[in-house]
Amino acid sequence: MLTLKVTDINQYVYCPRIPYFTYVQPLKPRPTPKMDFGKEAHTRLDKLEKRRTLAAYPELEAGERKFHTYIHSARLGLEGKLDLHLVHRGEIFPVEFKSTSRRPGLNHKYQLTAYAMLLEEQYRKPVRRGYFKLVNPLADGARPEKSEITLPVEITVPMRDFVKDVLRRIRAMVTQESLPSPKRPGNRCRDCEYRIYCLDLGDLAR
Ligand code: SF4
Is the per-residue pLDDT at 198 higher than 70? Predict the structure, then answer.
């Protein structure tokens, strides 16, 4: 079974062509200025978070924080490196850092769900909730607390089933070597690292 990365789930939901360009016709992504900016903000948040307490996470007054853990499941054929997870009174909570001025999209929620599924297998415990730590890269860097939100997300059974379905669909696409149709070309193409390769989209991808 082809081992996939958790980020493949995010990317497939964003646009199924991206995992095609990763596994079937490997192409080098071209980072956009927005992505470079977002990575800097993510690194800043990562450093800040290591100095903080758990006060931002509702109901978790104490607990252990584990940064940048590699997690893997042979059963799911899935692996990934998670920004942070919290261990509190026998419960486990994945945390994803996102640099964005918008609320997380479905692609981000399914990525968080996939991390929850990996943690469930590693700890042999159900994971009922995860968190997004959002930082607005456009906000005033002098007052970072004003630009950050901690957002809880319930991890449901349908979300887990959807993740398994995405894994099946990516593997089928790789086996069949079929170029998927773009998903709603437009804004998401403008911010995409692969847009120079989607020549069939013409002006929509520029
Ligand atoms: S440019 Fe658009 S269609 Fe092409 S991979 Fe990116 S999001 Fe998908």
Answer: yes
Lowest mean pLDDT among 6-15, 159-168, 192-201: 192-201
pLDDT at 106 over 90: yes
CB 134 within 8 A of CB 98: yes
Q: Is 15 in the pocket of ligand 1 (CB under 6 A)?
A: yes
Q: Is 182 in the pocket of ligand 1 (CB under 6 A)?
A: yes
**Ligand 1 atom index nearest CA of 182:** 3
In terms of DSSP bridges, do strands 148-154 and 129-135 run parallel, antiparallel, or are they unpaired? antiparallel
Check: CB of residue 182 under 8 Å from CB of residue 166: no
Long-range contacts of 174-179 (CB under 8 A, 24+ apart): 174/2, 174/19, 174/23, 174/24, 177/24, 179/17, 179/20, 179/24, 179/25
Name the band, by pLDDT with cuts 50, 70 and 90, for residue 15: very high
The DSSP code for 178 is P
pLDDT per residue over 62-103, tens digit each?
778 899 999 999 999 999 999 999 998 889 999 998 877 778
Q: Whose CA is nearest to atom 7 of ligand 1?
A: 189
Domains along the chain? Answer: 4-197 (3.90.320)
Determine if ligand 1 sits within 6 Å of the CB of residue 17: yes
Write down the pTM of the prediction: 0.87
